[in-house]
Amino acid sequence: MSFLGKLFGGKKEEKGPTTHEAIQKLRETEELLLKKQEFLERKIEGEIQTARKNGTKNKRAAIAALKRKKRYEKQLTQIDGTLTQIEAQREALEGANTNAQVLNTMKEAANAMKLAHKDMCNDIMDDIAEQHDISREITDAISNNVAFPNDIDEDELERELEDYETSTASHRPLLKIASMTIYLHPRC
């Protein structure tokens, strides 16, 4: 609806009935026409009985009954035609409804397949990226001497080495027997 139509209270757009509502309405109409058919058949049978009963005694009443019977038969024929049209329309609508449901189901399945393939592809790519990250971490760990940290003080190592050198210089061999050397530690 246009802006001016809304502003001046134009005609509102009416939504048509849903497929389910239309099918239900057609079924209700069929039931109504079937009841009308039964009613007319009973009326026709009643007029036949009236015509037979008055056939010899009251010819005018018999002819009037036969005329009503003919009108009822004409109405019955019209109702038969209408019922045929309504049944055909209902069946076509039910078929269209079924086709629409099948198409919706197929569309949902196609969308699910697209999503599954997209998710599967994304999952595989995520797994590959994760494996690359793990591999990179392992390579970094191996190449960075994690077992031998670089936070050792060089000066401290040099002092320790000097201590070893001075302690070995103060050890003097006393006796050499065969291949055995005995050292005495000086008492400080």
UniProtKB/TrEMBL annotation:
GO terms for biological process: late endosome to vacuole transport via multivesicular body sorting pathway; vesicle budding from membrane. The keyword Thylakoid does not apply. Residues 1-20 are annotated as: Disordered. It comes from Papilio xuthus (Asian swallowtail butterfly). Residues 10-20 have a biased composition (Basic and acidic residues). This is Charged multivesicular body protein 4b. Belongs to the SNF7 family. It holds the Pfam family Snf7. GO terms for cellular component: cytoplasmic side of plasma membrane; ESCRT III complex; multivesicular body. InterPro entries: Snf7_fam. Keywords: Endosome. Its main location: other. It is found in: Endosome.
